[in-house]
Amino acid sequence: MERNLLRLVAAIIILSITHPSWHAQADEVWNNDPERTRVRPELQWDWGHTYSSVAIDSQPLNRLLSSMFNSYRFTLPIVQLERAISYRGSSSRLRHVVGRMLNGDNVHVGVIGGSISWGHGATKRGEKDWFSHFSKWLIDAFPRSNITARNGCVPGVPSAYMILCLEQSLNHQDVELVFVEFNLNDGTSDMIVNAQVQSIERLIRRILVLPRRPAVVLLQTPSHGQAEYPVGHPKHAPGMEHKRFYETLEDAEGAVVQYYDVQMLSLRTALYRLAVFKQVEGFLWEQTFWDIHPGDQGHRIMADLAVYLIQQTAVGMLLRPFGPEDEEAFLEALPEPMYPHNKAPDAPMCIMYDAFKPMVIETGAWQYLDEGTPGKPKVGFIATTPGSRLVMRINTDRSETGQIPGSRVSVWVQHLKSYTHMGIAQFRCISGCQCEPHSEDAHIVRRVSQLYVFRMDVTQSAQCDIEVEVLSSTSSGEHKFKIAGVVIAEGSNRNYLSTLYLDGNGEFGMAEHNGNREQLVRTREGLTGDIRRLLRAVRGWYRR
Question: Shortest CA distance to 538 belongs to which of 123, 126, 35, 128?
């Protein structure tokens, strides 16, 4: 329904772009010009001859790692770089992947998060956002390694969504290093035990058990109001909240990263002394943040944190090579959750496109077709005649996740809606599970063709068979129906999509996951992904 679309768009604007009235308020004190957050080359520095007196097998360290040291200039002072590493731990997984890059192996790197790591605030996504700075450096720093860096971020979503659709944002079979950035979108809480930190734990667990045992690095950014001056300060934007240093989820999430021995970087800690205590030119809030998103200077500093972590890990690898103790830690099984019963399901939950194809066990007259364009596929199962039957088999068992036995699990069916050709299909559970039959009309008046979802609540079952039949009734005069996949909730009390679609249906508006916008991928050959629409949006954003 259109009001669900509007609700989703509003949520994305609020979470991933700015406070609705931020520009009007901030204009009074902060010049709304990209020049304000420009990168400042005069503040940058490099290692020079710092490591020339340290030798490994008579070879100076700065020569052994010359491609790594000589290809990047930092903006953040060295002391702040060290302070920004909130938790380093043993770094066994990180040491493993850095060792593979040093050896020239092929490595996949990814980032998942919200609008910040997606690139908001940077004047040119794909060039001036932090992950682009970092991935370009990574490719130059390890010239013998073929590195694939994928930006799988989705603006406006919290970690609870990425738990469901992780496989849509990562090369999950191959990824070996994953940066996670959800601190802004997850908000804050006064409770030590809260749903947001529990979501981060489940997300980390999902990543850690991927086939390549990837290293995980949380890159924390200031929460709403932290990169803001207090009330009464001459630069305070009227009406904007101000949060103190401790008003953030990242410290509670520090317990999670220590529990799983994954790394954490803090942009808050990196900048706070410079912006608040010392008020150093070039590091002030208005010079590093565009609004709640870092500007070009802030994105460059975020890249500083990631680059520094990898550099120091590489130095450590030369001083203490990866050994049996590291290998043992790398191969360790996950412990039980830090929060009791806080497990995500083992089975896939966001099953779309090609991954959905094996879930269909009977097709009849339905055909698996691609209606997209080169580089922008739009695949799914399609039927056009009444009586056509399809059966999909999904896993709704949540017995291992602490869910109440007998509770129902929401299944969100992804299907095409359009203003022409579309028909009506009935969905019903026929084996292994129970649910109320549901009829869905795929015809809409609005002249768009878009992926929608609707909700069915089904009983738990490892093999839940749902039949889909095209009906003879139609509101368009035709009978086409297309199914692209399903999103299966974590459980009855962990059902993130229900917070977006209060009526149980609506447009599936995550452009990076619905086929409307390609994710950016960088390799040694260059950058791929559709950024034309983004560039238009960025130009409009800065003109406001």
Answer: 123
The span from the first CA to the last CA of the chain, in angstroms, equals 29
CB-based contacts of 399: which residues, under 8 Å, 6+ apart?
405, 460
**Contact in structure between 393 and 439 (CB atoms under 8 Å):** no
Per DSSP, which regions of 225-375 are E strands?
A: 263-266, 350-352, 360-362, 367-370
Give how far the C-alpha of residue 361 lies from the chain's centroid of Cα atoms, to the nearest Å. 31
Kindly report the CA angle at 161 between 369 and 303, in degrees rounded to 5?
Answer: 105
| Cα→Cα distances 252→52, 112, 258, 259, 433, Å | 40, 20, 11, 11, 39
The pair of structure tokens assigned to 25 is 């308020």
- List, in order, residues 6 or more apart from 331 with CB less than 8 Å away: 213
Separation of CA 78 from chain center? 28
**3-state SS assignment for residue 355:** helix
Q: List the beta bridge partners of residue 264.
A: 87, 218
Position of tokens 């800065």? 542
Q: Give every CB contact of residue 110 below 8 A, 6+ residues apart in sequence.
A: 149, 150, 151, 152, 169, 170, 171, 175, 177, 178, 179
* Helices H / strands E in the chain, number of each: 19, 22
φ/ψ (deg, to 5) at 69: -80, -35
> Letter for the amino acid at 325?
E
Torsion angles phi and psi, residue 291, rounded to 5: -145, -110
Looking at the DSSP assignment, which residues form a beta bridge with residue 409?
Answer: 458
Distance CA 215, CA 305 (A): 16
Regarding pTM above 0.85, the answer is yes
Condensed to tens digits (0 to 9), the pLDDT of residues 464-487 reads: 999 999 999 999 999 999 999 999
pLDDT tens per residue across span 264-320? 999 999 999 999 999 999 999 999 999 899 999 999 999 999 999 999 999 999 999
DSSP-assigned letter for residue 353 = G
For 274: left if phi > 0, alpha if psi spans -120 to 50, otherwise beta; the answer is alpha
The structure tokens 């045992």 sit at 213
State phi, psi for 100 to the nearest 5 degrees: -65, -40
Specify the DSSP class assigned to residue 167.
Answer: G
Q: Which residues of 53-67 are buried (b: 16+ CB within 10 A; e: fewer)?
A: eeeeeeeebbebbee
Q: Which of 393, 363, 387, 370 is nearest to 486 (CA)?
A: 393
Buried b (16+ CB within 10 A) or exposed e, 505-518: bbbbbbbbbbbbbe
Tokens representing 543 are 């003109």
Question: CA 268 to CA 245: how far, in whole Å?
Answer: 8
Determine the Cα–Cα distance for residues 250 and 10; give it in Å rounded to an integer: 26
